[in-house]
UniProtKB/TrEMBL annotation, chains A, B:
This is Arginine biosynthesis bifunctional protein ArgJ. The record marks T125, G126 as: Involved in the stabilization of negative charge on the oxyanion by the formation of the oxyanion hole. The active site is at T201 (nucleophile). Heterotetramer of two alpha and two beta chains. Its EC number is 2.3.1.35, 2.3.1.1. Pathway: Amino-acid biosynthesis; L-arginine biosynthesis; L-ornithine and N-acetyl-L-glutamate from L-glutamate and N(2)-acetyl-L-ornithine (cyclic): step 1/1; Amino-acid biosynthesis; L-arginine biosynthesis; N(2)-acetyl-L-ornithine from L-glutamate: step 1/4. Belongs to the ArgJ family. InterPro entries: Arg_biosynth_ArgJ, ArgJ-like_dom_sf, ArgJ_beta_C. Catalyzes two activities which are involved in the cyclic version of arginine biosynthesis: the synthesis of N-acetylglutamate from glutamate and acetyl-CoA as the acetyl donor, and of ornithine by transacetylation between N(2)-acetylornithine and glutamate. Signal peptide: none annotated. It comes from Methylobacterium iners. Keywords: Acyltransferase, Amino-acid biosynthesis, Arginine biosynthesis, Autocatalytic cleavage, Cytoplasm, Multifunctional enzyme, Transferase. The keyword Nucleotide-binding does not apply. The record marks A200, T201 as: Cleavage.
């Protein structure tokens, strides 16, 4: 998590990075505050137009970072005017000093933005346990506030500034209608290790010019998170800092939508879900040391929640992940991971596929299984593992990556 | 799991392997049945004297192997005359053919032992999903039965024959009194990967000449398992084959002990617990790729069960395990693992030690913490991580190993 040494870009990085259009009411600036890294940007400042509403979901860790506590409180107000993100230091497990540091950062940002401290949202990512010197933001945030920019380059710089062990920036955009009004949704994310199902990537920020009340915004965000960030895992380790914030500036001027069940929201929900899935998948594609992007599909479970737990048991199994790294269609390890999930399963009804190749059925190896065909599937950079439990109609889909010696090298190489 | 290539002996292997004394009523023989390996023994046959009583605990996997199902049934009878163990093939997820294979193995063994098939216990370890040809036992088991031996060399050969990816054989012995009578307890185990808290190592077999009724034997075994094999994890992956069997031949001729609470059992329980802990620790010491033996101690939790779950969350965290591999006193990752366990914890009361070095207290870095002292602790082959939650008096202790590129190499190297 703390390394700043150059790591090659993940082989699973997207071929094309989208240019993000402007979102009315959002301006961005980045800066070098030398919080931990030198020679690169490590601060993102986002100015949000008056009237911006915020929604958020956070880590379920019992030991959350000081910024997570701050954002949870700030959400009670519901109004947002500025977002400050730093990379290099997570300000997590820093005790009273951590809380003071967040409060001071908010004050500095509030002065720069001309707003209340409670309208400032803060996220930090990087090393845990090191005090974060908020004094480093003094001057920097005011400077940022003076040069915020709504353009594509500013969005690209924003995605870059929040990276830690990420090997590529993560950004996505959607355009959709609410009623007759066109609205934009932009998102950026960061995260590569310490990614687990209990919530988002470490950090993701989504901005829209839609006009939506906070209760509605929170509803669509929670629903979208369940289908996206809560379905991605790299190593099963849940961060103390996981933060997903959604800001709506209202500047698109769409007709008021006051109920979460309003049918005019259907397209917006779909576009948001889609964008969140894209960002979540980008996180799995940048999993530390990843060489394979893995989709795990479980069907025929007792229920959807049961299917999800089984899918996560498969996606988090070191033996399954190392087998995929080794391009080994080792379905025995998939059986093991199904068995250990503790969910209803009947060994003698299980069927397992790698890609389109059914390797097992009715509790034994598929007699028609071709090792050559399975090997061809395993050599691809994208691998799908599918399990049919044959019990009922519960289903789930999660995304992960393989476990390679690259993960060990990034997280645990012997210090020289 | 399937490799038979030579792996160097774990640096954590014991310096001395004990010679196991005879256990009255137990004779052992090994053989080469070429089930998967060639040039090594892969079958263990144990003859048990008439009147031998069996107890057992098994994997909690919902997809257990065919031999596990067989042993669970055989325990209902409670009488044991023979144990057959093979390495190389786990006979797991082999459907109807797997069940037939176990039944035929039991018949062959019963003929060799001159007993009922229901008095034969069977365990298999190795690759999952491959049909096991029980015909390979034909002739082999009868030959074994004709040359069983009670001596130390036979015990050493037994521990060797059941190995798969193990880099060293695992055996232990204790001598203890029940009343005025001296009884012996011998144990052998195997396991290196796919080791997780839901039960034992993959396979462990314990033999005693004590005379104990089955209910008492089962009681002492279950109690001992909770303190030993259920406190060890290598990779959090629970095997489909985990089996721990305890056989009591009764040939020591101790006074009858009919109640599990009989105080004359105290020394026996203590010796058995101690032997089971020794075997469980040997498994962690032979964790695939392990270079550090890690003890995780949690205290101050809401209760013992809560402490156990937190300890397991730490012991199974890839980020904690890679940090230990890297000799990095990264207590931030310990905080993360405490937080993700989902158990009651208060960030601001946490204290963390590596060895005797307190690195964090009251939710922040210990101001007296010496990086040099912590680094010295981390360079040792044995590392203890201690966490005090500061809430109540719940405590737990578990054992694991670090996560190195050796684990990846054993389980996932790209197939060439």
């Amino acid at each position: 998590m703390s390394s700043s040494k150059a790591t090659p870009v993940s082989p699973l990085a997207p071929a094309i990075y989208p240019d993000l259009p402007a979102v009315r009411g959002v301006g961005l600036a980045t800066a070098q505050a030398c919080i931990r890294y030198s020679g690169r940007t490590d601060v993102l400042y986002v100015a949000l137009a008056e009237g911006t509403v915020a929604a958020g979901v956070f880590t379920r860790s019992k030991c959350p970072s000081a910024p997570v506590d701050w954002c949870r409180d700030a959400l009670h107000g519901g109004s947002a005017r500025a977002l400050v993100v730093n990379s290099g230091n997570a300000n997590a497990f820093t005790g009273l000093r951590g809380r003071e540091s967040v409060a001071r950062t908010a004050e500095i940002a509030a002065r720069a933005a001309g707003c209340e401290a409670g309208q400032v949202f803060i996220a930090s990512t990087g090393v845990i346990g090191e005090p974060l010197d908020a004094g480093k933001f003094e001057g920097v945030l005011a400077d940022c506030a003076g040069r915020v920019d709504p353009g594509a380059d500013a969005w690209a710089a924003a995605a870059q500034a929040i990276m830690t062990t990420d090997t590529f920036p993560k950004r996505a955009t959607r355009n959709v209608r609410i009623g007759d009004t066109s609205v934009t949704i932009n998102g950026i994310a960061k995260g590569a290790g310490m990614i687990a199902p209990d919530m988002a990537t470490m950090l993701a920020f989504v901005f829209t010019d839609a006009a939506l009340p906070q209760a509605v915004l929170q509803d669509v965000l929670v629903a979208g998170t369940a289908k996206s960030f809560n379905c991605v895992t790299v190593d099963g380790d849940t961060s103390t800092s996981d933060t997903l914030l959604l800001f709506a500036t209202g500047r698109a001027g769409n007709d008021p939508v006051n109920e979460a069940v309003d049918p005019r929201l259907a397209a917006f929900r779909e576009a948001l879900d889609d964008l969140l899935i894209e960002l979540a998948q980008l996180v799995a594609r940048d999993g530390e040391g990843a060489r394979k992007f893995v989709t795990v599909e479980v069907e025929g479970a007792e229920g959807d929640a049961s299917a999800h737990r089984i899918a996560m048991s498969i996606a988090n199994s070191p033996l399954v992940k190392t087998a995929i790294a080794g391009e080994d269609a080792n379905w025995g390890r998939v059986v093991m991971a199904v068995g250990k999930a503790g969910e209803p399963a009947d060994r003698d009804r299980l069927a397992i596929w790698f890609g389109d190749v059914r390797v097992a059925r009715e509790g034994a190896r598929d007699p028609d299984y071709s090792e050559a065909a399975a090997s061809a599937v395993m050599r691809e950079p994208k691998v799908t593992v599918r399990v049919d439990l044959g019990l009922s109609s519960g289903r789930a889909r999660v995304w992960t990556c393989d476990l390679t010696s690259g993960y060990i090298a990034i997280n645990g190489d012997y210090r020289s």
